[in-house]
User: Fold this.
Amino acid sequence: MAAKQLSNEIEARIRQLWPRFPEGKAGRALCLPVLYMAQEQFGHVDAEVIDLIAARLELTPAHVTGVSTFYFMINKDRPGRYHLQVCTNIGCQLMGAYDVFDRCKARLGVSNRQTSRDDNVTLTEVECLAACGFGPVAQIAERGKPEIPLYFENLDLKKIDAILDALAEGRVPTELGN
Ligand code: FES
Assistant:
C-alpha cells in the first residue's frame, strides 16, 4: 500500500497560513487545524498520520500526539458509521448522564471508545459539550461527513432509545434536536 500523503488541499492551506505566524511558531499554531483537516482526509488520525503531520509542521511526533489526544474530536481509531459522544461531565452527570451512557453501552454491547460489532456506532464518553444547561447532552457525527455534529439535549432514556433505534436504521433523528 502506498504511503499516506497529505492532500493537495492541506498542503495549499499550510503554504497559505505558514507565513502569517512569527518565525518558528507556525508549526505549533497549525497543528490542530492540520490534524482536523487530516482527519477529514483519512477518517481518523493514526500513528502514520501523526508522523506525517509532525514532519510537515517541523514538530516532534510527541507534540502532535499530545495535541491529538487532548482533543476528543480527533479520532485515533476509525469510528463506526456514527460516532455517538455522550457528555458525562458534572453538569450532565447531575441530570442523569450516566443513565443515558449506560443505556448506550448496554444496547450497543460496547464499553467506552468501542464500536458496535456491526461497525455502525462508536460510543465515546466526553467532557463538556458546551450545552451544560441542557444536559444530558450528546452529539452524533457521521463518518465521512465532516460538518458540525448534530446535538441532542435534555436526554432521558426514552430519547436515547429513540436515537439508538434510529441509528440502527441508518439515520440520525434530527427531530430530537432539543
Ligand atoms: S457538562 Fe455536559 S455539556 Fe457541559
User: Anything to note?
Assistant: The first helix runs from residue 8 to 17. The radius of gyration is 18 Å. The chain has seven helices and five strands.
